[in-house]
């Protein structure tokens, strides 16, 4: 499968070819005929356009608007965020590539999430002369570990169908706790309900009965069922007493509880007070948005508008952090990072966060190979996502550590308690035993990779270590494992040599701590 040799060299799909093209122009045009490459370029331009929409909305002062106008713009913002996620999934489907993975664990504030859903669909309902009500019980969890993109798509299809088939009245979304702490999201409409024929083909692809007078193909519930299975949820569909249909998404505790699917997100935004950050970005909207976010975090910002200016600034002074757009005039962001790393040699390395609308794995691999420490995909969804990306980049350039005297605990007792409580007494014993065995196997693999100089083995073992460390709440080890994984992927032996001893020491300390925990909980020696 053809891939872009350099994402910044790809011409914009909407642009016209220059007159009197050179041989290299012809080569680029030929490569652009590949469906994979065309999809990559279209995906880039789509994400860039969505980034402009979201960036403009983020910079706008909605408080000055009347309530109706503010509601409409909030609805547009919510739809644009969902469009960005759907763009990623569509691009991955067309190219056969992996979806870009988040750098941080999934952690969603349930209340604000539901408020955004309600704001969006209240406006839809009002356009059709309907009401929309959100009913939330008081004992709902504050945070959930469910993928918010999948959950929003599920609710959008459920509520969209309810609005479509309700001739009058109010569509209701009720969210409450069910049996065994299941999280229940129920959408009820005032329509005619499901016929027997519709029930028989409910989740089929385009399953609307052929003799149905209702509009549409029945694709919505097929999508909902597929997404519900992805997040380990269950669907219940019924005709409600008194008329109308009721569609419910049931999420067992193991599917929604934070810390079960993934560890908790970073607890606080990074403090960049006293830090000088270079931002290399040519888009005016993104310039304003990134500057505002950095200044909110306390940073001093130096702004340049093209790659050559960025390279000159980096040659003239040292920055605490660099944010570089990958596609810029005069010199690409990849070339900026390459020049920086070449100039630094074996000396201290500047943390670099690449900001890009290119999301295919080949593009990401090339960006990391150039020397970037992290990638933040456009559009930037929130200050939290922005801050967490920066925090992880900064953690990948750590000072030499001594894990035996580190002030942080080897594991987070809350994370471990939650995991073992959900597993139950006997399964908890086995879970802790397997966890110790897994850390031991990772430790042996890292030591072997170190002895053999085997980057592939280091990459494989750190790939296992990252979620293991996160599962017990050791964010320091998790961040160092991610940095070591990136160094192994790019073949950066200097970074590997600096990080690997520290990671091995942390794994040893954590393994010993888990052994003590096993003895304390079960009053016996753990299996060797």
From TrEMBL:
<keyword id="KW-0808">Transferase</keyword>
<dbReference type="InterPro" id="IPR004358">
    <property type="entry name" value="Sig_transdc_His_kin-like_C"/>
</dbReference>
<dbReference type="Pfam" id="PF00072">
    <property type="entry name" value="Response_reg"/>
</dbReference>
<feature type="region of interest" description="Disordered">
    <location>
        <begin position="1"/>
        <end position="34"/>
    </location>
</feature>
<dbReference type="Pfam" id="PF02518">
    <property type="entry name" value="HATPase_c"/>
</dbReference>
<dbReference type="InterPro" id="IPR003594">
    <property type="entry name" value="HATPase_dom"/>
</dbReference>
<keyword id="KW-0418">Kinase</keyword>
<keyword id="KW-0597">Phosphoprotein</keyword>
<feature type="domain" description="Response regulatory">
    <location>
        <begin position="276"/>
        <end position="393"/>
    </location>
</feature>
<dbReference type="InterPro" id="IPR036641">
    <property type="entry name" value="HPT_dom_sf"/>
</dbReference>
<dbReference type="InterPro" id="IPR036890">
    <property type="entry name" value="HATPase_C_sf"/>
</dbReference>
<feature type="modified residue" description="4-aspartylphosphate">
    <location>
        <position position="325"/>
    </location>
</feature>
<dbReference type="GO" id="GO:0009927">
    <property type="term" value="F:histidine phosphotransfer kinase activity"/>
</dbReference>
<protein>
    <recommendedName>
        <fullName>histidine kinase</fullName>
        <ecNumber>2.7.13.3</ecNumber>
    </recommendedName>
</protein>
<dbReference type="GO" id="GO:0000155">
    <property type="term" value="F:phosphorelay sensor kinase activity"/>
</dbReference>
<dbReference type="GO" id="GO:0005886">
    <property type="term" value="C:plasma membrane"/>
</dbReference>
<dbReference type="InterPro" id="IPR005467">
    <property type="entry name" value="His_kinase_dom"/>
</dbReference>
<feature type="domain" description="Histidine kinase">
    <location>
        <begin position="41"/>
        <end position="255"/>
    </location>
</feature>
<dbReference type="InterPro" id="IPR001789">
    <property type="entry name" value="Sig_transdc_resp-reg_receiver"/>
</dbReference>
<dbReference type="InterPro" id="IPR011006">
    <property type="entry name" value="CheY-like_superfamily"/>
</dbReference>
């Amino acid at each position: 499968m053809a891939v872009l040799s350099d994402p910044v060299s790809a011409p914009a799909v909407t642009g016209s070819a220059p007159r009197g093209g050179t041989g290299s122009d012809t080569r680029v045009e030929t490569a652009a005929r590949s469906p994979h490459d065309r999809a990559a370029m279209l995906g880039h331009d789509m994400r860039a356009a969505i980034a402009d929409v979201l960036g403009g909305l983020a910079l706008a002062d909605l408080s000055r608007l009347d309530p109706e106008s503010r509601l409409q713009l909030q609805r547009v913002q919510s739809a644009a965020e969902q469009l960005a996620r759907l763009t990623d999934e569509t691009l991955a489907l067309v190219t056969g590539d992996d979806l870009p993975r988040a750098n941080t664990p999934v952690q969603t504030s349930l209340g604000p999430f539901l408020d955004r859903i309600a704001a969006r669909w209240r406006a839809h309902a009002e356009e059709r002369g309907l009401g929309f009500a959100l009913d939330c019980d008081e004992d709902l969890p504050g945070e959930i570990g469910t993928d918010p993109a999948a959950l929003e798509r599920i609710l959008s299809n459920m509520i969209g169908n309810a609005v479509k088939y309700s001739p009058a009245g109010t569509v209701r979304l009720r969210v409450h706790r069910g049996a065994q702490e299941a999280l229940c999201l129920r959408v009820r409409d005032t329509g005619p309900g499901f016929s027997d024929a519709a029930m028989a083909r409910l989740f089929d692809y385009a399953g609307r009965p052929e003799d149905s007078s209702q509009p549409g193909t029945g694709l919505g519930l097929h999508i909902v069922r597929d997404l519900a299975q992805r997040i380990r949820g269950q669907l219940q569909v019924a005709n409600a007493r008194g008329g109308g249909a009721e569609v419910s998404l049931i999420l067992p505790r193991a599917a929604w509880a934070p810390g079960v699917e993934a560890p908790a997100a970073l607890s606080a935004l990074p403090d960049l007070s006293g830090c000088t950050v270079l931002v290399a970005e040519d888009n005016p909207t993104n310039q304003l948005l990134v500057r505002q976010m950095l200044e909110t975090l306390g940073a001093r910002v130096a702004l340049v508008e093209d790659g050559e200016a960025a390279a000159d600034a980096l040659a003239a002074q040292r920055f605490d952090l660099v944010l570089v757009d990958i596609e810029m005039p005069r010199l690409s962001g990849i070339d900026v990072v390459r020049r920086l790393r070449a100039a630094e040699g074996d000396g201290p390395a500047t943390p670099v966060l690449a900001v890009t609308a290119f999301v295919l794995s080949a593009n990401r691999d090339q960006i990391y190979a150039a020397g970037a420490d992290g990638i933040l995909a456009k559009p930037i969804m929130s200050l939290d996502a922005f801050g967490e990306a920066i925090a992880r980049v900064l953690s990948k350039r750590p000072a030499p550590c001594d894990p035996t005297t580190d002030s942080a605990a080897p594991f987070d007792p809350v994370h471990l308690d939650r995991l073992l409580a959900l597993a139950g007494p006997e399964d908890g014993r086995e879970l802790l035993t397997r966890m110790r065995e897994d850390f031991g196997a990772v430790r042996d693999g890292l030591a072997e990779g170190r002895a053999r100089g085997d980057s592939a083995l280091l990459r494989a073992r750190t790939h296992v270590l990252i979620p293991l460390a996160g599962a017990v709440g050791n964010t320091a080890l998790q961040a160092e494992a991610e940095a070591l994984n990136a160094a192994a992927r790019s073949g950066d032996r200097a970074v590997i040599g600096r990080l690997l001893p520290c990671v091995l020491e942390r794994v040893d300390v954590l393994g010993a701590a888990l052994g003590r925990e096993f003895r304390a909980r079960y009053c016996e020696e753990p299996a060797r």
